[in-house]
């Protein structure tokens, strides 16, 4: 004990302790930096670093004005951190983003970016934080789904806004549920996983991927059938049909009465 006490009072003891402290601090910092670099190198999905870099350039040129230079969001647009690649695929792939004009709802239009650019932008947004990804091709195969079960799921979860015939419908404050006729399978799927506009998010806990595939199968089967009964009348159901019959029937009755009661000249 006396020997240890003497060494502790040695003039070089402070320098040795300081050196050990610096070495320990430097070692911990180097280890933490290595871990962070390893985490940063783990790109989401099957994206490459080049795709992320190109996506960032596209983002700065086309999206940063509303969503912020770091996608943190502004008063004109929400944050994109954590929205995932699926959100980009839906919004950009359907032409809703970039928006043509400010309004209550982004409208579908011809896409401004091609498939490669959309993928690059998806890679960049996916690198900002974990979020819904692009679905596997197997879940986009409508022929492998069950349209009968998909129709049941659609009527339970979707028909109150999109209409039982998937023709769309009006919502509040100038918004609307769009028609689902002619929509690509990947955009139907990503809309369910991201919940754009007023639409709720249907994650895999709510509607599993297999059920989403069945819904897609129902929509594509219904779309392929066309209008076997004649005029579609906007697919608005018995209200529009009843209104048409009432209007035509009343017009025929009035016309008949005018013809029968008119005097021959």
Main attributes?
single chain; 265 residues; mainly alpha; Cytochrome Bc1 Complex, Chain D, domain 2; two-stranded antiparallel sheet; 11 helices; 54% helix
CATH class of the domain at 137-227: Mainly Alpha
User: What is the number of helical segments per DSSP (H or I, 4+ residues)?
Assistant: 11
CATH topology type of the domain at 137-227: Cytochrome Bc1 Complex, Chain D, domain 2
Total beta strand runs:
2
Share of helical residues: 40-55%
Low-confidence stretches: 34-41
Radius of gyration: 30 Å
Average pLDDT reading: 84
Quick one: CATH superfamily of the domain at 137-227? Cytochrome c-like domain
Proper CATH architecture of the domain at 137-227: Orthogonal Bundle
General description of the model:
This protein is mainly alpha-helical and 265 residues long. Among the domains are: 49-128, Cytochrome Bc1 Complex, Chain D, domain 2 (Orthogonal Bundle), CATH 1.10.760; 137-227, Cytochrome c-like domain (Cytochrome Bc1 Complex, Chain D, domain 2). The protein has helices spanning 2-8, 13-41, 49-62, 64-67, 84-93, 115-128, 147-157, 159-162, 185-194, 209-225, 238-261; strands at 169-170, 176-177. Helix 3 crosses helix 6 (115-128), helix 5 packs antiparallel against helix 6 (115-128) and helix 5 packs across helix 9 (185-194). The radius of gyration is 30 Å and the shape is elongated.
């Amino acid at each position: 004990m006396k020997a240890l006490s003497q060494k502790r009072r040695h003039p070089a003891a402070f320098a040795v302790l300081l050196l050990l402290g610096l070495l320990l601090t430097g070692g911990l910092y180097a280890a933490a930096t290595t871990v962070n670099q390893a985490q940063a190198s783990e790109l989401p999905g099957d994206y490459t670093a080049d795709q992320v870099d190109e996506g960032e350039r596209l983002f700065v040129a086309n999206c940063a004005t509303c969503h912020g230079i770091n996608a943190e969001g502004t008063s004109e647009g929400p944050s994109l951190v954590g929205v995932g690649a699926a959100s980009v695929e839906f919004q950009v792939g359907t032409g809703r983003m970039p928006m043509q004009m400010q309004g209550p709802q982004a409208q579908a239009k011809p896409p401004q970016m091609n498939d490669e650019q959309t993928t690059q932008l998806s890679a960049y947004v996916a690198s900002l934080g974990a979020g819904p990804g692009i679905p596997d091709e197997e879940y986009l195969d409508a022929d492998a789904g069950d349209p009968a079960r998909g129709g049941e799921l659609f009527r339970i979860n979707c028909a109150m806004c999109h209409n039982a015939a998937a023709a769309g419908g009006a919502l509040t404050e100038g918004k609307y549920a769009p028609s689902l006729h002619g929509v690509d399978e990947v955009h139907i799927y990503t809309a369910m996983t991201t919940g754009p506009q007023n639409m709720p998010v249907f994650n895999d806990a709510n509607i599993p991927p297999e059920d989403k595939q069945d819904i897609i199968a129902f929509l594509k089967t219904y779309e392929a059938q066309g209008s076997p009964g004649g005029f579609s009348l906007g697919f608005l159901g018995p209200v529009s049909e009843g209104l048409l019959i009432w209007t035509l029937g009343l017009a025929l009755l009035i016309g008949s009465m005018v013809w029968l009661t008119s005097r021959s000249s």
